[in-house]
Amino acid sequence: MSEQLPPFTLQPIGKIWTGFKSREECPRNSRFNESESVIEVDPAFADAFLGLEVGRHIAVLYWFDKADRTKLQTTPPNAEKQYGVFATRSPHRPNPIALSAVKILAIEGTKLTVSGLDCIDGTPLLDIKIYVPMIDAPEGATEALPWAHKH
């Protein structure tokens, strides 16, 4: 890419409360964390909750605001060599956008209690989308790297 793309701005729509006060306390992946977290959305977006239901899954996009944005390679846990961050789930990357599929346990106003997230208390929330297995986990999808399924 020879020309520089113009920057743009993302506005957080809320915050995530996990009880984890540091990166070291956070689980390595939300899939292996069953503790409850609260997603608190700005009341201006209350109408966007229409159709959300307890027991359903959602995809949560959030910003790892404490991540190192200059890191381009890492050695993942259970891996024996380095990989580029685009071949990993490392929080350290040029744009530290995180994605987790979580189950809604409760809805109260503009707060969602969900099972398991892997971020620090107060992490900025970028967006919420419904989770659709046939779209988000396509049949025949292959694992990116052999070490990725170990935890």
Automatic annotation (TrEMBL):
* Organism superkingdom: Bacteria
Q: Name residues in a coiled coil.
A: none
Q: Which GO terms describe its biological process?
A: methylation
Q: What molecular function terms (GO) are annotated for this protein?
A: methyltransferase activity
NCBIfam families (alphabetical): tRNA_TsaA (TIGR00104)
> What keywords are annotated for this sequence in UniProt?
Methyltransferase, S-adenosyl-L-methionine, Transferase
User: Which Gene3D superfamilies is this protein grouped with?
Assistant: YaeB-like
User: Membrane-spanning residues where?
Assistant: none
Query: What organism is this sequence from?
Result: Cohaesibacter marisflavi
Task: Give residue ranges for domain TsaA-like.
Answer: 10-140
Query: Which named protein is this?
Result: tRNA-Thr(GGU) m(6)t(6)A37 methyltransferase TsaA
The text of the family note is: Belongs to the tRNA methyltransferase O family.
